[in-house]
Structure formats: structure tokens, C-alpha cells
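ok here's Prepilin-type N-terminal cleavage/methylation domain-containing protein:
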Amino acid sequence: MLSQSETKKRSQWRTKKITTTQKGGVGFDDAGLSLVEILIATFLFGIVSVMTFQIINTFASTQASITNSSKSSATAMTAMNQVTRSIRNAQTPSNQSSPFVSASANSIDFYTYDSATNSDVEMIISANPIAGTSCPCTLTQETINPGSSNTTLVLATHLANDSIFSFGTITSPTSISISSLAISGSATSASTLAQIASVSITLVEAVGTTAQSSTITSTIGVFGYGSNQSIDTTTTTSGSESESTTTTSGSSDN
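and the structure:
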């Protein structure tokens, strides 16, 4: 049995120990984070947030660029296929010495076979600035229908160039040697138009501001010229990759 004085001393000792612990002793800490620690944590969190945002933004931009580049390539190829098919089927009317009505760097007017109507029609293919006098341009194909309204087909809407046509003439029919035919402005002279033996088309398509442009160049021989032979070449370039094909034909491709 403890005496009354010893019990009182032990009670006082326990009370003192609890008070000391609550004020910052070994068993309890209510001091929390200091201002410096809070500032450091906030700074580190900010750095991590900025880095995360940059990574996400870079990924999104790269993905958008890849998507737009694919669209550019697909659109340019589709437009080129349509243009080359129309030029390859060019027909010379009985009252003309050439399929062409006019020719310039950004527009050609010519007669061609139209499979939809099973007849020869006049067609105008041109590159036109969307606004002002410079690209981006739209590539349109207008079919002139006598006695009814004309029809216009938009082939491309993001052309980076409006000088899309150049022309060649045969200097040696036996070897199918083609040299450049200089046309200044818009040629309408029958004698000049009759010299056109090939049409070269260059389409530079860039969908969106971050897209890698896709360039397709095709040279189409005009059927019915000279020995009824033509050389067709097509080159596709997207970034550092290119693909080229060459075919020789001696018959119409209707």
C-alpha cells in the first residue's frame, strides 16, 4: 500500500508528463507544416503540373499534325486522280485542232469524255484563292452543260499553290521527246494550244496549320497527239518520302 503522500506525488508526476507531451514532447506533435515547407511543396507541384501540361499538349499537337498530314495526302491523291483522268480522256472536237480552249498556269479549259453522260463535254479545272490573291486555294472542276446549269465539283480546299499546270510539246515524235512549252498568261491561240502534247500537274496540299504538306506531281500525255502515244508519270512526295510511277500508253483510256 502506498502512502497518501506517495500517491499524490505519482499523480502530480503523471499530470506533468501529459502536459509536457502535449506541448511538443515525443508522443505528440501539433506544430504542422511551416511556411517554407508549404512554399516548397507548392513550387514542386507547379513544376510537375507545367511539365504534365507540356507533355499532353505536345502529344495532342503531334497527333493533330499526323492526322492532318494523312488528310493532306489522301485529298491530294484523290484530286490528282480526278484531274488526270479528265485530262487523259481529252477529246478534240471536229471544229478544233486541239482539245484545249484555253490554258494557263492555274486553269485549263478543254473538252473531255464524260462517262456520266457518255458524251464529250467542256470542262474547266482551276485553282482559285479562297480570299485575296494568294493561297490557300480551292481546286475546282466545272463541267459546262449546254442548255442546262453548269456543275462544279470541289476537288481540294487546302492547296498551297495556285500555279498547278505546265505544258510540254513533242519535239521528236519518233522518240516521244517532250520539251517545255512556255505559256505566258492565258493562251487561247489555236496554234499554241495545238502544240500541247502533255500537261504536268503539281498539287501541294496542306490541311491545317500544323500539317506536313503533301506534294503530288503528274505528267499526262494528251491522247491523239502525233503518233497517238503518251508518257504518263506520277510522283508523290510527303516529307522525305517519294514514290514515282511511269506508264506508256498508245490508246485512249475511256
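+1. The chain has three helices and eleven strands.
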